[in-house]
Here is the input.
Amino acid sequence: MKQITIRKPDDFHVHLRDGYLLAETVAASARCFGRVLVMPNLQPPILNAVQAKLYKERIQTANPCNHNFKPLMTLYLTDSTTIQQLDEAKISGVVACKLYPAGATTNSQEAVNHIGQLYPLFEHMQKIGLLLLVHGEVTESQVDIFDRESVFIEKYLQSIVSNFPKLKIVFEHITTRDAVQFVLDSPETIAATITVQHLQYNRNDLFMGGLKPHNYCLPILKRSVHQQALRDAVSTGTSKFFLGTDSAPHEKHRKESSCGCAGCYSAWSAIEIYAQIFEELGCLDKFERFASENGAHFYGLPLNEETITLIKQPWQIPSMISLATGQELVPFMAGETIQWKLS
Here is the structure.
């Protein structure tokens, strides 16, 4: 196959950041995605409807051209989030709330310390139709970092799903076969996003031949058996899984530091790498469903009417992206040649 045309896809998990970074990140996502679900873990985080509205306006202002590109906004849950904030968010068009266990990832220090205390919020979200997005990792220091997703399922997620059967929950950026099986065994109110880095790489790609800081992300890359479970999951074509890049830019000097940041900046090549992976798996016929349909259906959104075309043409991902500030970003799979290119 030399060319594929699919319905314009959506990215249901992206970090656009703010300020000067928006000029870069919005352009990268707008080139191929119709909608992006924007994560709220800024500094300070997006805690209410007013902040979400202002952030959306900044994103729209940064859109460099007339692409039909729509940011979908989310709220950052804390121990102090109120029912009133949820109602105001819903009225304003916010589509979901994000649960970060405090300390789980970038800018999550102000997030949730006591998940059980949020049950009244989950009850109200279920009532008014706000989705719950879950960064599913425990943060207790005694739990091995490679086990934190599995422990979160047992300690928290099973109970949340059981107690709120009508609450739509997205298990974000899953990384383990435990998570794959949990989602498959759960009711239709539970789905998951899968990133390009967790399909493409396993923990060997983080550590082999020396530490690769630009492959460091959270949740961290897991063993090859877990990577294979994710690849098997998308190969089935089930509607339970859909595209969420978790593209997360950090300047080169912040990644290559004594305490490097977690995140892979994949926006400029993610759709092409996903296509390459689906071809490797022999399931290109299921790519459109994963990229363009499953997420929209789960969120209750209309399918995009536009299309994109990818052609079989090798090209090299840039080794570096320069920012207006003079800083640099190292993109995901920097300098590597991939086989599909956006036409």
